Amino acid sequence: MHLMRWNLGKAWDKVAPVKNSSLQMAYMEPQKADENFLKVAEDQKRQKEELHAKILILEKDLDMKQKLELEIEQLQGKLNVLKHMKDEDEDAEVLNKLDSLLKELREKEEAFQDLDEMNSALIAKQGKSNDELQESSNELLNVSVF
Questions:
Q1: Under 8 Å CB-to-CB from 44, ≥6 apart: which residues?
Q2: Model's pTM, two decimal places?
Q3: Which chain positions lie within coiled-coil regions (predicted)?
Q4: Percent share of the chain, pLDDT over 70
Q5: Which of 32, 40, 37 is closest to 144 using CA atoms?
């Protein structure tokens, strides 16, 4: 009987560390999942804030673009008026005004084109950020499932 206890004790000594190790791993796994969840959630929050900031920039750019469009239309209207005045009166002052308006119109059109290019770049960047945010969200869902 004593020998049997001794053999059981020896067997328990071999099984106990493995069992404790398994318990520790089982205990640590949810903690790791929680840590991963928090990391992904923080990353997702940061990306969401970045996207919000980009949206605000895009809205501001859109406002500037619309303002430039309006200014360009107004300048084109003034040019048309001056062209008609030019036909009636070949005054040097009218020609100077016409030249300055043409120059201003070209500058506004260039600024408009620059804004349009920047807007396109920001939209592309926003799309990429949205894709990254979606990936993070999917990763978060995968982590929380396990």
A1: 133, 136, 137, 140
A2: 0.47
A3: 41-125
A4: 73
A5: 37
Where do the domains of the chain lie? 2-145
The rounded distance, in Å, linking the Cα atoms of 68 and 55 is: 20
Is the CB of residue 105 less than 8 Å from the CB of residue 20? Answer: no
Q: Read off φ and ψ for residue 104, nearest 5 degrees.
A: -65, -40
∠ CA 91-92-98, rounded to 5°: 95
- Give the separation between CA 52 and CA 42, rounded to whole angstroms: 15
- Identify which of 67, 66, 53 has the alpha carbon closest to the alpha carbon of residue 125: 53
Q: What is the pLDDT of residue 9?
A: 53
Core vs surface per residue 117-129: b (16+ CB within 10 A) or e: eebeeeeeebeee
Q: What is the pLDDT of residues 21-79, one digit of tens each?
A: 666 776 677 788 778 888 888 888 888 888 888 888 888 888 888 888 888 888 888 77
Name the class of domain 2-145: mainly alpha
The answer to whether the CB of 77 falls within 8 A of the CB of 104 is no
Q: In this structure, what token pair is assigned to residue 18?
A: 């493995």
